[in-house]
Amino acid sequence: MRAALERSWYEQGRGWLALRPLATLFGGVVAARRLFYRRGWLHSEAVGVPVLVVGNITVGGSGKTPLTLALIEKLQQRGLRVGVVSRGYGGQADTYPLDVGPDSDVAAVGDEPLMMALQSGARVVVDPRRPRGAQRLEQQGVEIIIADDGLQHYALRRDAEIAVTDARRGLGNGALLPAGPLREPPSRLDTVDLSLVHGSNADFWLVPGAALSLDGQGRRRELSQFVGTPVHAIAGIGDPRRFFHMLRGLGLDVIEHPMPDHHRYRAQDLDFGDDRPLLMTGKDAVKCRRFANTARCWQVPVRVAFSSDCEARIDALIDRLLAARQVR
After folding, report:
1. Distance between CA atoms of 166 and 123, rounded to whole angstroms?
2. What is the residue-wise DSSP string for 6-47?
3. Is there a single domain that holds both residue 158 and residue 229?
4. What is the pLDDT of residues 256-283, one digit of tens each?
5. How many angstroms separate the CA atoms of 296 and 214, rounded?
6. Which letter, b or e, does each residue of 59-89 get, where b requires 16 or more Cβ atoms within 10 Å of its Cβ?
7. Which residues lie closer than 8 Å to 233 by C-beta, 6 or more apart?
8. Is residue 159 a contact partner of residue 53, using CB atoms and an 8 Å limit?
9. What digits encode the pLDDT tens for the residues 77-103?
């Protein structure tokens, strides 16, 4: 049902039209909520360090997490202690805020926070109440906070906002939930500090690196070495086709296994009845690493490449945030 609905958002079809009355109601709630925060009728909490929000106005994958990792790296290169506050979608814990570390249980903290902690070395805190999570990071001595997927979480006051849109999927049919994929109207993009497009020849794109074995042996294998034989590929991300398309663009013969976003894997999910190589995203690997420790399982890491114009705009935004930090 959900998959069919999402297809109607991004592909030709008219099934979503019956949901327009609900979308109108949702839009009214969204507009009222934002107005209440702007007028101060709902309270936004500030912390003592700059807060950079990275998010989008659509449901599903747009490239937020790789961009967040790239921003962490940029800030760390400037000598800053960086913290990330996240809702931890897909995870469930008894108490919050929850610090995320290499040995954290992905079922408690969520897949994306664990992946960011493992790949960046930044402090990551999960909390459904983002202001409380941000305060925890401030107490730990971070100098700047990135609020992951925080565009609609107005309870945390922010110093700058970056919105990400996927070039291939765009804004879908342009309708608000549930008739379309939009969490907020398209005009919201006009209010952010940077509105970036993710995709080939856009503001930024993803570059795959050598595959990393999950068998604990530290082996690396160039993706070109998988050409010539069929490989399985799993992706439990917002847009699995993006991963499969990337692999096919490198000449791989891909057997697709799309999974729901934030899918909770079991060992049998990786059993396809043969011994062909299995490639997966970093987000999937953090959930499979305890039982995917065989020679056939590989993680495909990616890094962000920026257009020169986009990189200049990001650097200027960071300069502004650091200047604001000095006058706090």
Report:
1. 27
2. HHHHHSS-SGGGGGHHHHHHHHHHHHHHHHHHHHTSSPPBP-
3. no
4. 999 998 899 999 999 999 999 999 999 9
5. 8
6. bbbbbbbbbbbbbbbbbeeeebebbbbbbbe
7. 243, 244, 247, 252, 254, 255, 256, 257, 278, 279, 280
8. no
9. 999 999 999 999 888 999 999 999 999
Evaluate if residue 36 carries a pLDDT over 80: yes
* Angle formed at CA 150 by CA 73 and CA 111, multiple of 5 degrees: 65
Please state, as a whole number, how many other Cβ atoms lie within 10 Å of the Cβ of residue 212: 17
Considering the domain architecture, whether residues 228 and 199 belong to the same structural domain is answered as no
Is 311 a residue whose pLDDT tops 90?
yes
**Is the CB of residue 267 less than 8 Å from the CB of residue 291?**
yes
Same domain (yes/no): 198, 80: yes
Query: 176: which strand partners?
Result: 182
CATH no. for residue 195? 3.40.50
Cβ contact 178:5 at 8 Å: yes
Chain center to CA of 270: 23
* Predicted model pTM: 0.94
Count of Cβ atoms closer than 10 Å to residue 181 Cβ = 25
